[in-house]
Amino acid sequence: MKILAEKKALELLNGIRNSFADDVRMNYEHRAKSCLTCDTPGACCLDEHFVNVRISRLEAVAIGGVLDSLPIERREAVIERIADAVERFGLDDRDHPLKTYACPLYERGTGCLVHEKAKPLPCIQHACYESAADLPPDEMLDRAEQAVHAVNIRTYGGPQPLLPIPAAVERFARIRQSS
Ligand code: SF4
Ligand code: SF4
Asked: For residue 41, which of 5, 13, 103, 113 sits 20 to 30 Å off, Cα-Cα?
């Protein structure tokens, strides 16, 4: 199998994310409550009993790229929050599927730090819908996740573990640090 360059893989990942986000936006999101008028913005990202998003190595590398572009002080604050989350919620390389956590990528006033360029697929799918029937179907998320899985295999030569966001970023993202 010819290995895909990570840069090319990140472009493919971006294409999968954008097409998934377009589908959600055009066909489902209009039935959901607007996050702009939410009384508890970020509750969905900061609820340590709710967030259970798992991501792959390539998605963690994409998140690392966004964090790398932040000014140094802000970047280091996020790195610290990520380390805190790994420790506080007992997240490690061996995933425990039922473990939940508060996401360290949420910043009050800004929202999701990776919203534009590296938001994970389950986060794109998530919104507050009145009726479960209005939600984007799980098969849609499954298809997009399978496509990301295939790009991971082509890039890293084999299947990659799915880990909670803080653990995946800590393990796979190569974020610049000052010391
Ligand atoms: S998804 Fe729901 S809880 Fe989260 S910000 Fe939007 S409206 Fe608020
Ligand atoms: S990645 Fe962004 S949208 Fe997803 S849980 Fe974290 S802050 Fe929320």
From this structure: 13
Whole domain around residue 128: which residue ranges?
6-172
Mutate to test the pocket of ligand 2, among 24, 44, 53 (most ligand atoms within 8 A of CB): 53
For residues 8 and 22, give the distance between their C-alpha atoms in angstroms, rounded to a whole number: 21
| Beta-ladder partners of 111 | 107
In order of 21, 54, 68, the CA distances from 116 in angstroms are 10, 18, 15
Count up the domains in the chain and report the number. Answer: 1
32 found inside a domain: yes
Q: How many CB atoms lie within 10 A of CB 101?
A: 23
Q: Is residue 177 part of a domain?
A: no
Asked if 7 and 108 count as a contact pair (C-beta separation under 8 A), the reply is: no
Q: Are 63 and 17 in contact (CB under 8 A)?
A: no
| Ligand 1 mean position, distance from CA 174 (Å) | 30
Q: Give average pLDDT by consecutive 10-residue segment, the chain, 179 residues.
A: 93 98 96 92 95 97 96 96 96 83 95 97 95 94 97 95 95 79
Residue 178: its pLDDT value, please? 66
123 within a domain of the structure (yes/no): yes
**pLDDT at residue 179, as a whole number:** 59
Q: How far is the CA of 44 from the centre of ligand 1 (A)?
A: 6
In a domain? residue 179: no
